[in-house]
Specification:
The complex is a heterodimer of chains A (397) and B (205). With 397 residues, chain A is mainly alpha-helical. Chain A contains 18 helices and no strands. Chain A has one domain. Chain B is built from six helices and four strands; from the N terminus they run H-E-H-E-H-H-H-E-H-E. In chain B, helix 4 runs antiparallel to helix 5. The chains are: A mainly alpha (397), B alpha+beta (205).
Chain lengths: 397, 205
């Protein structure tokens, strides 16, 4: 392989169209959502939290997978590394998305409502940690550190593109290893803050990794959809081989099972214990219309993709695999909706039009930023020493 | 069911000794001839030879390599493996067994009231159901692979070729079986010589 940087240049015109569509749809949905903010602020913030968690999950999951790839190596990661890096470079924008949340804390969290804190001994006890100021500081630090790791890795990757230098891969590994550990810890902290504390007193020790597993799935599902978009265009048309897609499919299967494992562990332990301070979470989500949503999650966030992803033929074809990725990305939204919404409507299924417009708004804006970032680099890490082997075509006769 | 199992194993019926008598392509097949084998120095030469052999019209072809070669399976014309189907059936059987065992013990045979929970506590049955699914699928994979390969097989005619032991070291072998309709004693051997093999020889049964 003796390819120049030029030959892996991104399809700028198509990316510009994608970005522009994202921007237009995102801006329209934002405008509609803004009407909701004025007419029904409480509902707006609930829907917005789901949307924020979803887009944050795509970017952070991508960051985590790129760090995983720096640790493990392998052809599967080299062919999607630029997609992962572009997603993770949208983190500054996503940090901006967090700002509106800070104005709606009192609509979301019982600990942010002074009247409720005053009347609740446990909330009073927690107030040292669970208060709006410290919440904002923690969220800010998390977003800052994630952004920092994303930027450092992305810059090292850029330096590798500019000129091959020995030792750069090692340096990326040295950043990725602590980055991956820190990512998990910070997601654990942020998921307790953003999602778990919606419930008045409920707690679950596995909640953090449950969110980590979900983010990995979000990141990979989005990446595979972009991968399909690129595989239909030059110059990536001939790059992506069935063996790469096979690995992506196996990884998607692994993350699907990981999410199901965490989800079931949490459910099994709390269901078996059946203790008053824990069971409320599942009681709220299994009664009324929410039971149907829970079943829908079990079927379409796990069972259906699991069965399809067992098939070798399905996993080796990006056109087919993208269907699973699309389904799982949609189910990520359902999962987050299922985590957030029953806290406000226990026992009665409730759905608001803002639940649709806010994710569309944030996802559209995210897509615009992503498309711009993806266009700034070549689509493959041209100077990575592993690349020639990763692109080798085993074709005879 | 018999037909299904028959089809499942159809391609893997032990290779019969080529029936002596007139061949499709004319000529007589000597008894005790199992096939013709050619030795190659590297994987590329072998793959090249496989393509040429298939192009010539030979269908019952086997290849032996010191390490797995991904594209060889497709090149040689072996269809998709039947092991996945067995694994799936094993997994389904294991899942039903695992859940059934727990259901039978907790609901039918020894119903015990544990903290007021329902006898059919299906949530807590899931881990063992899952483990049994994996266990049975794994066993089906190993046993299915052995059975479909015809293993254990203490003797195989290729062992009569002295150089064949190199197949587990650094040589690549291609064999055309005598039961191939196009196989002709002598002609097939000469054809294999044209493929760039370092050695060719008959394989006696």
């Amino acid at each position: 392989m003796n390819e120049t940087n030029q030959s892996w240049a991104p399809p700028l015109a198509d990316l510009a169209v994608l970005g522009r569509r994202g921007l237009i749809v995102g801006a329209l949905a934002s405008a509609v959502s803004a009407v909701g903010l004025i007419s029904n602020p409480a509902q707006f913030y609930r829907s917005y939290l789901v949307a924020f968690a979803l887009v944050l999950g795509v970017a952070l999951g991508s960051l985590a997978i790129s760090m995983l790839h720096h640790m493990s190596g392998g052809a599967w990661g080299l062919v999607i590394r630029r997609i992962l890096e572009a997603s993770s470079r949208t983190l500054p924008l996503i940090a901006l998305f967090a700002v509106p949340l800070l104005f709606g804390l009192k609509y979301l969290y019982p600990w942010a409502d002074p009247a409720r804190v005053a009347g609740d001994a446990i909330l009073r006890h927690r107030a040292v940690y669970m208060n709006p100021t410290f919440f904002a500081i923690r969220l800010g630090i998390c977003l800052l550190l994630w952004t920092l790791f994303a930027q450092v890795l992305s810059r090292l990757s850029k330096r590798q593109d500019d000129a091959p230098a020995p030792g750069l891969e090692r340096r990326m590994q040295l950043v990725a290893a602590p980055g991956l550990a820190l990512y998990c810890l910070l997601v654990s902290i942020a998921s307790v803050d953003l999602l778990m504390s919606l419930d008045l007193h409920w707690f679950s020790a596995i909640y953090g990794v449950y969110v980590v597993g979900g983010q990995a799935l979000s990141g990979l599902a989005f990446t595979l959809l972009v991968s399909l978009f690129l595989a239909r265009r030059d110059p990536m048309r001939d790059v992506l081989q069935p063996r790469h897609v096979h690995d992506h499919g196996n990884l998607l299967l692994a993350f699907t099972m990981l999410w199901a494992y965490f989800a079931l562990s949490q459910f099994l332990i709390i269901w078996s214990g059946n203790l008053p301070e824990e069971i409320g979470f599942f009681h709220d989500r299994l009664t009324g219309g929410w039971g149907a949503v829970s079943l829908f999650l079990a079927l379409f966030h796990f069972a259906v993709p699991f069965v399809f992803l067992l098939s070798r033929d399905f996993k080796r074809n990006i056109g087919k695999l993208a269907w699973a990725a699309g389904l799982l990305l949609f189910m990520r939204w359902v999962d987050l909706f299922w985590l957030v919404s029953p806290a406000f409507h226990p026992g009665t299924l409730s759905f608001h039009w803002l639940d649709v417009t806010t994710p569309v708004a944030l996802f559209g804006l995210f897509l615009a930023a992503f498309a711009r970032e993806l266009g700034t680099r070549s689509l493959l890490p041209v100077n990575d020493p592993e690349l020639p082997v990763a692109l080798e075509v085993h074709a005879h006769g | 069911m018999k037909g299904f199992i028959g089809r499942l194993f159809a391609r893997h019926v032990k290779p019969e000794l080529g029936t002596p008598g007139p061949r499709v392509s004319g000529g007589e097949l000597p008894p005790h001839l199992y096939g013709a084998i050619a030795e190659f120095a590297n994987a590329d030469a072998l793959l090249h030879a496989v393509h040429a052999t298939r192009k010539e019209g030979y269908q019952v072809v086997e290849a032996y390599t010191p390490y797995p070669i991904e594209e060889l399976n497709d090149a040689i014309g072996h269809g998709p493996s039947r092991v996945p189907l067995l694994v799936l059936l094993g997994g389904i059987a294991g899942g039903l067994f695992g859940f059934g065992l727990q259901y039978w013990t907790s609901v039918i045979a020894y119903p015990l009231n544990i903290g007021g929970r329902p006898y059919n506590s299906w949530v807590s049955f899931i881990p063992i159901t899952f483990e049994c699914t994996i266990l049975f699928a794994g066993i089906a994979a190993v046993l299915g692979m052995l059975v479909l390969n015809g293993l254990p097989m203490p003797y195989h005619p290729v062992f009569s070729v002295p150089r064949f032991q190199l197949a587990s070291r650094d040589r690549f072998f291609l064999m055309i079986l005598a039961r191939d309709p196009r196989f002709r004693a002598g002609d097939t051997l000469r054809f294999m010589e044209t493929l760039g093999a370092s050695h060719v020889s008959d394989v006696e049964d």
